[in-house]
Amino acid sequence: xxxxxxxxxxxxxxxxxxxxxxxxxxxxxxxxxxxxxxxxxxxxxxxxxxxxxxxxxxxxxxxxxxxxxxxxxxxxxxxxxxxxxxxxxxxxxxxxxxxxxxxxxxxxxxxxxxxxxxxxxxxxxxxxxxxxxxxxxxxxxxxxxxxxxxxxxxxxxxxxxxxxxxxxxxxxxxxxxxxxxxxxxxxxxxxxxxxxxxxxxxxxxxxxxxxxxxxxxxxxxxxxxxxxxxxxxxxxxxxxxxxxxxxxxxxxxxxxxxxxxxxxxxxxxxxxxxxxxxxxxxxxxxxxxxxxxxxxxxxxxxxxxxxxxxxxxxxxxxxxxxxxxxxxxxxx
Amino acid sequence: xxxxxxxxxxxxxxxxxxxxxxxxxxxxxxxxxxxxxxxxxxxxxxxxxxxxxxxxxxxxxxxxxxxxxxxxxxxxxxxxxxxxxxxxxxxxxxxxxxxxxxxxxxxxxxxxxxxxxxxxxxxxxxxxxxxxxxxxxxxxxxxxxxxxxxxxxxxxxxxxxxxxxxxxxxxxxxxxxxxxxxxxxxxxxxxxxxxxxxxxxxxxxxxxxxxxxxxxxxxxxxxxxxxxxxxxxxxxxxxxxxxxxxxxxxxxxxxxxxxxxxxxxxxxxxxxxxxxxxxxxxxxxxxxxxxxxxxxxxxxxxxxxxxxxxxxxxxxxxxxxxxxxxxxxxxx
Lengths: 332, 332
Fold this sequence. Notes:
Two copies of one chain form a homodimer. Chain A is α+β, with helices and mostly antiparallel strands.
């Protein structure tokens, strides 16, 4: 561990994991909760899902979204990935002195629209103001409460032969925000920021064997898939040729020195499903506009326990580790 | 409305109210929720209380507490003031690059201890890192879920002749933090930061007629009491001689040009109770260490509708308005 917090600790990759494992969980862990997921399934009788995220994205507005839409979709999706139906949100604003009122109201308009689109309600909130130079215009925290509809999702359910699905192209959000920050022209790039709970619920209804769902945000798909098999007897083989990545994302990543597999997504889910449900799962995802480009991208194998291996287009195999360091700071 | 957010908008006083009324509620209001309180009583069948607060206090450590303890007590108390039994917290950290790991861990130790003391559990969380100069070491958001045990608390219940109680001396937290920030010696000053849910529950059990509870944080007791009668046919008369204020708080306030009635508290509650329950309420508060200095400080009258009037020691009357402007920025 370093002596100070560096940007790497916010990357969603290895250092974030280490911070959580070494500094946070020894103090705040909760044996009753079992494993860590995108949200908590509360141990009480209510069967509720509870999740939180702070949003510190820079810039506040980017093609396809803004911090307000992101603050709704991010928490809605975390609840959905736990098998929950998102119902209520809190919304806490940390505003920097000097924030234009018009900017704030534009963000709030977007946040309201995103709530309507997702069918969730903001029911409580907070406002704080910090001095100029102690923030960056606007940070938003949302916490969300959902009703647990599909219990039991967990990486522990994964079995040899299971298939890995992604609901669409990878890297769109991360590449868009990074390019927006660089000031370069964005062409067709757009963030994929979208609520996933309806598609997730349809998938879980039709395919009760789904092992685990996760939205690959910070750290990207490579980090999330690593988390699925971390410490397990099984590994995942990913087919490079099957992974959907838009040409514009490829181009932006080349330019910026990024890898789409490590770029954040804000409107995609990864699912591990038993082989006999793979076709039905794909069909279900395809029936939603946000899942139109869903694809089977990998298989769970006993060959590389605990590892994610990319089968390249040339037939080689490359181990993909969790994101190390801050590929993309302040991406969400 | 101004064109930009100034520090005043974070004061908890008039400008904060205006921001909420003009910019936030028109977008995010929720008719099903009824009036705004410290938290939301969820309209669904679960009878849950949901609340959130971000904590941006500066300095992070001060006599009697720190940002970690504050982040637990603040949300626990908001739930308690709604008649809820606090159960679960989320904890989201926004860390500035360069934050010493030791500082973070000290805060987390304190946060854990505060959770244990309050009997609540952190069940979900988030970590974000922002660049140097885009934060101020550490901001913490907590959201909390509680079970609604005592429904129906509301300023609308207030009747002529009701008595106003405070659970102890006023201004301790605000005066302590402001003096700590000034770098002056603090003497006996200590923040009152403490969880109030057990005392609140005992009060509500013994005195079922309690009209409303509120913890006077930002904006202080004067602002909270104003909120009780805002737009009502009734007013509140406060007896200056009855308001408990420690000599050290008086001295610090004189030095800093503050008024204890507008200083934040983090371990005090205000209650409005029917006259026939006033003695029992006082006795209940006195039976808790955190309520040892509880006092009857005012009366609800029909004389000054919508107003809070201070009866001074000299027999005069002075209207106390809601806090205007940023008396105390970043106090919680």
